[in-house]
Write a structure and sequence with these properties.
about 150 residues; alpha/beta; Nucleotidyltransferase, domain 5; 5 strands
């Protein structure tokens, strides 16, 4: 028995069967989606919108003051005054400006004082005096870990 030989590149024409398959898949997708939309309408759910706060949010302006073991005072990693200065005029001036700007912005100025355990105690007192002169009343204390 001999089979008829076909040409190497026959023209098969437009294939409609794959198109029908794709249309049925899309139809099933939209039918399933329509059922979910109906359930959402029954539940009366709404997406969250713009939230309105009943009270104003208070922003805190936090500054970091550090006293190292040599008595050097830094505010936000910037060195102020010499370790021998007890009045700390540069630090007091800068703290006064920070206090004035936070008052103008109606925000709370919080200063975190980090003293090294080996720093002289009088240096921490000098920094506290400088804070008092500048009018800063919100001060928190932390201790630096010196477990070296």
């Amino acid at each position: 028995m001999r089979f008829p030989v076909q040409a190497s590149n026959p023209d098969v024409g437009f294939q409609i069967a794959p198109m029908i398959d794709v249309v049925f898949v899309i139809l099933v997708f939209f039918m399933a989606l329509a059922a979910q939309i109906r359930i959402e309408q029954i539940l009366q759910t709404k997406l969250p919108g713009l939230a309105v706060a009943s009270t104003s949010t208070e922003f805190v302006d936090e500054q970091i003051l550090q006293v190292d073991e040599a008595g050097e005072v830094t505010l936000n990693d910037e060195v102020y005054d010499s370790p021998s200065s007890h009045e700390l005029p540069q630090l007091t001036s800068t703290l006064g400006q920070l206090k004035a700007s936070s008052d103008a912005a109606k925000s709370k100025l919080v200063v975190t004082l980090i003293s090294h355990p080996d720093s002289p105690y009088y240096r921490t007192i000098d920094v506290l005096n400088s804070l008092a002169v500048a009018g800063v009343t919100n001060v928190t204390f932390t201790a630096d870990d010196a477990t070296e």
